[in-house]
Amino acid sequence: MFTGIIEEKGTIKDRQLVSEQAMLITIEASQILDDMQMGDSIAVNGICLTVTAFSETYFQVDIMPETLKTASLKLLTEGSSVNLERSMPANGRFGGHFVSGHADGSGTITRKETRENAVNVAVDVPDELAVYLIEKGSVAVDGVSLTVFGISGRTMTLSLIPHTVSATVLGDKQKGDPVTIECDILAKYMKNMLSEQH
C-alpha cells in the first residue's frame, strides 16, 4: 500500500526486453535505497513493482505482460525520469490517499497551463475509468496523489502545486503525453457494491 506522496525521482539506467511482453528495468535512485531489501515493493510511476536486485546506486524490477498492458511504463527509455515511492510503513504518516499501486489504465494529457503559482493539467481518461472520478475526489496520476478539481465528460482537471511540479515527473510532461491512472480504491469498492445490488 502507498500514499501517492512521491519520495524522489529516479532515472531509468537500463531497459531490457525479456520477451515481447516482459521487461527488466534498472533504476538509479538514492533516497529510497537507504533501507532497501530484496522483495521490497516500490511504486514506479504508480505501479507496484518488486525489487529483484539492488546496489548502492540502483535497483532492478521485472515488469510482467499484464503490467505493460495497463501502464505507460512500456514507453520509458534510458534516461527517462520516474516517480518513486516506498510502500507505507505501519507507523508512518498518511499524507495522500490509499494507493494500491495497481493501475486501472492510462490517460492522456490534453492541456497544461500555468495559473498564478499552480499548473493546471487536463487529462482524458477512458469511459470505464471516468465513472470513478468525482470533483474534489482523489486520483493517482503516475503515482502522485492528486485532487480532481473539475470534470467534463471524460476529462479531469488537476492543479499541481509548485512542489509537485518540481518533485515529480508530472512537471516535465506535456500535452499528448500518456500517464498511468489509478482511481480511488474506495470509489471502486462502492461502485462494485452498488452494482451487485441491481
UniProtKB/TrEMBL annotation:
Q: Tell me which UniProt keywords the record has, alphabetically.
A: Repeat, Riboflavin biosynthesis, Transferase
Q: Where are Lumazine-binding repeat segments found?
A: 1-97, 98-194
EC category: transferase
Quote any Pfam family the record assigns: Lum_binding
Q: EC number(s) per UniProt?
A: 2.5.1.9
Report which reactions are catalysed by this protein.
2 6,7-dimethyl-8-(1-D-ribityl)lumazine + H(+) = 5-amino-6-(D-ribitylamino)uracil + riboflavin
Record-annotated Lumazine-binding domain positions: 1-97, 98-194
Question: In which pathway does this enzyme or protein participate?
Answer: Cofactor biosynthesis; riboflavin biosynthesis; riboflavin from 2-hydroxy-3-oxobutyl phosphate and 5-amino-6-(D-ribitylamino)uracil: step 2/2
Q: Which GO MF terms are attached to this record? A: riboflavin synthase activity
Residues annotated as coiled-coil are none
Q: Which PANTHER family match?
A: RIBOFLAVIN SYNTHASE (PTHR21098:SF12), RIBOFLAVIN SYNTHASE ALPHA CHAIN (PTHR21098)
What functional role does this protein have?
A: Catalyzes the dismutation of two molecules of 6,7-dimethyl-8-ribityllumazine, resulting in the formation of riboflavin and 5-amino-6-(D-ribitylamino)uracil.
**Which named protein is this?**
Riboflavin synthase
Record organism: Lentibacillus kimchii
